[in-house]
From TrEMBL:
Native organism: Roseivirga seohaensis
Cofactor or coenzyme needed: pyridoxal 5'-phosphate
InterPro entries, alphabetized: Aminotrans_IV (IPR001544), Aminotransferase-like (IPR036038), BCAT-like_C (IPR043132), BCAT-like_N (IPR043131), Class-IV_PLP-Dep_Aminotrnsfr (IPR050571)
Single Gene Ontology BP annotation: amino acid biosynthetic process
Keyword Transferase: no
The UniProt record lists the keyword Membrane: no
Recorded superkingdom: Bacteria
Pathway: Amino-acid biosynthesis; L-valine biosynthesis; L-valine from pyruvate: step 4/4; Amino-acid biosynthesis; L-isoleucine biosynthesis; L-isoleucine from 2-oxobutanoate: step 4/4; Amino-acid biosynthesis; L-leucine biosynthesis; L-leucine from 3-methyl-2-oxobutanoate: step 4/4
Keywords: Pyridoxal phosphate
Protein name as catalogued: branched-chain-amino-acid transaminase
Length: 283
């Protein structure tokens, strides 16, 4: 059975989705998206992701051409039709075809549902490493389609054996290109919020942490503090709670996955299983 997607009110194969070359999403990078996982037909934290999508549109002054109910109905229709055991849903809106090469036009709304694979389990058992790069994202609170810096840097971090890049301004960190950052110091869980995308997994971990005995501190974090931390991990829809054991050439503590990070990994796995009504999750 051929998979279907949603494009401006119609349900079509992915190959039938086309954009004008004059779309400001193509010409000027003027577009937003959000993304969440679906487990055996059950979306994970869909409402929170759609809330963020609406917030991104508002902050960019974009008008979503369909109602929340219409978008949710379309999402469930393509999920039920495609029947993927594990998949991702991406809700994407571009600025539309421009009359003059600069001004926005009528927005395009696309919702795709694509089968995905599980993340490499060794990333959770052994931890991962990050490369650092001095860079400040424009409008970090908006989930835009502009990932030019990360796409440019990807071949470099892969060549060096890293899985992603940690941005900083020369003193304070902001975020990883597609993830939020946490430090563990004793029973304190530290994360930042200024200059970062309000991650949905981040939000869930912040809410979960006190139940697991952590005191949450939300404040700016210096790069030097990250390098000296007892434990570091990153969070995102795809990565969930992923331990970081090395940054550039420096190991974090003893270079192994920490006990507190493991506790949060297990706690988030249970939360995700409850949300999607699955028997269990393993990192």
């Amino acid at each position: 059975m051929q998979a279907i997607q949603f494009f401006n009110g119609k349900f079509v194969p992915k190959e039938s989705i086309t954009f004008s070359i004059d779309d400001v999403g193509v010409l000027r990078g003027f577009g937003i998206f959000d993304y969440f996982k679906v487990y055996n037909g059950a979306p994970a934290f869909m409402e929170a992701h759609l809330n963020r999508f609406e917030s991104s549109a508002l902050l960019l002054g974009m008008e979503i051409p369909f109602s929340r109910n219409e978008i949710e109905t379309a999402i469930f229709k393509i999920i039920q039709h495609n029947e993927f055991p594990l998949s991702g849903v991406k809700v994407l809106m571009t600025g539309g075809a421009s009359p003059d090469g600069f001004s926005a036009g009528k927005p395009n709304l696309v919702i795709t549902n694509t089968a995905v694979s599980e993340t490499n389990p060794s990333f959770y058992a052994e931890g991962v490493s990050l490369m650092t790069h001095q860079f400040t994202r424009e409008m970090p609170q908006v989930k835009t389609t502009n990932y030019a810096t990360a796409v440019r840097l990807e071949p470099i971090w892969k060549q060096k054996g890293h899985i992603d890049v940690l941005y900083h301004d020369g003193h304070y960190i902001s975020e990883v290109s597609r993830s939020n950052v946490f430090l563990v110091e004793g029973n304190k869980l530290i994360t930042n919020e200024e200059g970062v995308l309000p991650g949905i997994t981040r939000m869930n971990v912040v809410n979960l942490a006190p139940q697991l005995g952590f005191v949450v501190e939300v404040r700016p974090i210096a790069l030097s503090e990250v390098l000296a931390a007892q434990e570091v991990f990153i969070t995102s829809t795809n990565k969930k709670v992923m331990p970081v054991v090395k940054i550039d050439d420096q190991e974090i503590a003893d270079g192994k996955v920490g006990a507190k990070t493991k506790l949060l990994m297990e706690g988030y796995a249970k939360l995700l299983a409850e949300e999607t009504k699955q028997p269990s999750f393993q990192n």
